[in-house]
Automatic annotation (TrEMBL), chain A:
The keyword Phosphoprotein applies. This is non-specific serine/threonine protein kinase. It comes from the Eukaryota. Component of the EKC/KEOPS complex composed of at least GON7, TP53RK, TPRKB, OSGEP and LAGE3; the whole complex dimerizes. The keyword Nucleotide-binding applies. Belongs to the protein kinase superfamily. BUD32 family.
UniProtKB/TrEMBL annotation, chain B:
Belongs to the KAE1 / TsaD family. Binds 1 divalent metal cation per subunit. Pfam families: TsaD. This is N(6)-L-threonylcarbamoyladenine synthase. GO terms for cellular component: cytoplasm; EKC/KEOPS complex; nucleus. It is an enzyme of class 2 (transferase). HAMAP family: Kae1 (MF_01446). It comes from Mythimna separata (Oriental armyworm). It catalyses: L-threonylcarbamoyladenylate + adenosine(37) in tRNA = N(6)-L-threonylcarbamoyladenosine(37) in tRNA + AMP + H(+). Its main location: cytoplasm.
Length: 235, 334
């Protein structure tokens, strides 16, 4: 596997696979290849890989209906465990943006806009019963709201693109959504520990995005969170 | 130069160790082993520690070949852990501090594991997988704290293994996890169990209850060895996966495994393969340092002591819940 990708530029090795960039039908394309993980049992590996590819492809399609931006899906090659998708060349992960382009607590406006984008988008996913499964700031990209040649596009209007749907699934329960929020909270607290209010702001935006009843989501979220705090830790 | 003694008794091991500037002078330990099918309870465990702590202390001092007067600081596990057993060590540590007129310092057990691992392996700034009876955490250092990036959302890896050992009535000597590891080596048939990963978090309660509910049925087609093997393969794959996810997220190329489950050779092997596949480096230790011990408390305490940390005698209490990221790390400034 991966043989015919040898000449392609490897963009990076992510959490689950290798990312290559190429040109597919004239468009800048990113190939996400989930190569065989030799550390796990072959049966388990095959199941997980198939499952993840299916999840990713399905959710990207579903996001379109939910008006959540994702890279466009070009091709799914189950045989080689590859997904071909739009490569957003002019993009930056929310993680890198916050770390490198937000300058301390004084940059409140920028951070406020980001929190809103994240909160609103996650809420839209959940309203459509899409559970992302791996909500971190590495899995959110910022792009220009309106495409242009502007070199300083990071200072202009930005839009958020959700990526990495391998762990996603369809779920309508408060528990599923609550856990999704919990995963996000934990990732934010650990990664962006210099912005202690960031998650609260995101949650605020999440709540306000829609007038629809949040149902059990928030109480389940708080329940999972409390479970974590109460867990005894012997050994 | 700092000589530190450490008292550890947060679970079923009572350990006392002495270090001198990172050099281990002694590392003595006794384990409370319960009959097959039974876990350890606070009262009995504390009783075990009370019965053994003086012998272990004598042994640790003798092996180190030092007198109490040479010790600079007395360290003990402040938490997390079981209340009654923690208390046994805290009381003896306080008594020693008064008798020998030495300063006392409470240490976070998890930080003890991490610093011990860094000392033994010389890993510099690794992503840490901390897996033990009561903890399952993916940790990375940032701005003076060990931050928790991933965690179990229900039971710990070790707890899951221990309880499964009880279902199979495996011996608890030297530890249930060790016996599962040995049995797994003889397993051949893989049975696919529920696999549950949520971002950088995991859940093991599903696997355990699945096994508990179906055990009689499963044992018709699978040997206990097959089931131990299947459990390890599934659960460890989850641990390796979340470790890798945290590495990608943090941009890290070092992994350190600490905690009691960390001495499992299959887990180390799987983690090693993952690291090789992404050009990263694995650091791990054996049971002397992975499993709860006094040296880890002495060493972590010494680091804090050297960086100026102090504790008022009146504050030398214990706490059952004490998170890894509650500790302000004064001895690192990277
Ligand atoms: N369509 C894309 N366009 C540009 N960059 C991308 C795209 N998809 C992923 N990336 C970059 O690659 C990284 C890893 O991709 P991701 O889909 O999250 O895979 P993994 O499952 O390995 O985390 C992302 O954090 C992001 O920096
Ligand atoms: Fe421990
Ligand atoms: Mg990702």
């Amino acid at each position: 596997m991966g043989e015919d990708l040898k000449d392609l530029k490897i963009l990076k090795q992510g959490a689950e696979g290798k990312l290559y960039i190429c040109n597919y039908l004239g468009k800048p394309t990113l190939i996400k290849e989930r190569f065989k993980k030799k550390y796990r049992h072959p049966d388990l590996d095959e199941n997980i890989t198939k499952e993840r590819i299916k999840n990713e492809a399905r959710s990207i399609v579903r996001c379109k209906a939910a008006a959540v931006r994702t890279p466009a899906l070009y091709l799914v090659d189950f045989h080689r465990s590859r997904i071909y998708m739009e490569h957003l060349e002019k993009s930056i992960t929310v993680k890198d943006f916050i770390i490198n382009h937000v300058k301390g607590e004084t940059d409140k406006v920028k951070l406020g806009l980001i929190s809103k984008l994240i909160g609103h988008t996650v809420r839209k996913l959940h309203e459509s019963n899409i559970i992302h499964g791996d909500l971190t700031t590495s899995n959110m990209l910022l792009v220009q709201k309106v495409k242009s040649d502007d070199e300083n596009w990071l200072d202009g209007e930005l839009d958020i693109v959700m990526i990495d749907f391998g762990l996603s699934f369809i779920g309508s329960s408060g528990e599923d959504k609550g856990v999704d929020l919990y995963v996000l909270e934990r990732a934010i607290i650990s990664t962006h520990n210099d912005y202690p209010n960031l998650f609260e702001d995101i949650l605020e935006a999440y709540k306000k995005q829609s007038k629809k009843n949040l149902g059990e989501t928030i109480s389940k979220f708080e329940e999972v969170r409390a479970r974590g705090r109460k867990r005894t830790m012997v050994g | 130069m700092v000589i530190a003694i450490g008292f550890e008794g947060s679970a079923n091991k009572i350990g006392i160790g002495i270090v001198k500037d990172g050099e281990i002078l002694s590392n003595c330990r006794r384990t409370y082993v319960t009959p097959p099918g039974e876990g350890f309870l606070p009262r009995e465990t504390a009783e075990h520690h009370r019965q053994n702590i003086h012998t272990v202390l004598r042994e640790a001092l003798d092996q180190a070949g030092i007198t109490p007067q040479e010790i600079d600081v007395i360290c003990y596990t402040k938490g997390p852990g079981m209340g009654a057993p923690l208390m046994v060590c805290a009381i003896v540590a306080r008594t020693c501090a008064k008798l020998w007129k030495k300063p006392i310092l409470g240490v976070n057990h998890c930080i003890g594991h991490i610093e011990m691992g860094r000392l033994i392996t010389k890993a510099n700034n690794p992503t840490v997988l901390y897996v033990s009876g009561g903890n399952t955490q993916i940790i990375a250092y940032s701005r003076n704290r060990y931050r928790i990036f991933g965690e179990t959302i229900d039971i710990a890896m070790g707890n899951c293994l221990d309880r499964f050992a009880r279902v199979l009535k495996l011996s608890n000597a030297p530890s249930p996890g060790y016996n599962i590891e040995q049995a797994a080596k003889k397993g051949k048939k893989y049975y696919q169990l529920p696999y549950c990963v949520k971002g950088m978090d995991v859940s093991f309660s599903g696997i355990l209850s699945y096994m508990e509910d179906k055990i009689d049925e499963l044992l018709k087609d699978y040997t206990p060895e097959d089931l131990c093997y299947s459990l390890q393969e599934t659960a460890f794959a989850m641990l390796v996966e979340i470790t890798e996810r945290a590495m990608a997220h943090c941009g890290s190329d070092e992994v350190l495994i600490v905690g009691g489950v960390g001495c499992n050779e299959r887990l180390q092997e799987m983690m090693g393969i993952m690291c090789a596949e992404r050009g990263a480096k694995l650091f791990a230790t054996d049971e002397r340092f992975c499993i709860d011990n006094g040296v880890m408390i002495a060493h972590a305490g010494a680091l804090a002591f050297e960086s100026g940390a102090t504790m008022d005698f009146n504050d030398s209490t214990i706490t059952q819940r004490y998170r890894t990221d509650d500790v302000y790390v004064t001895w690192r400034n990277d």
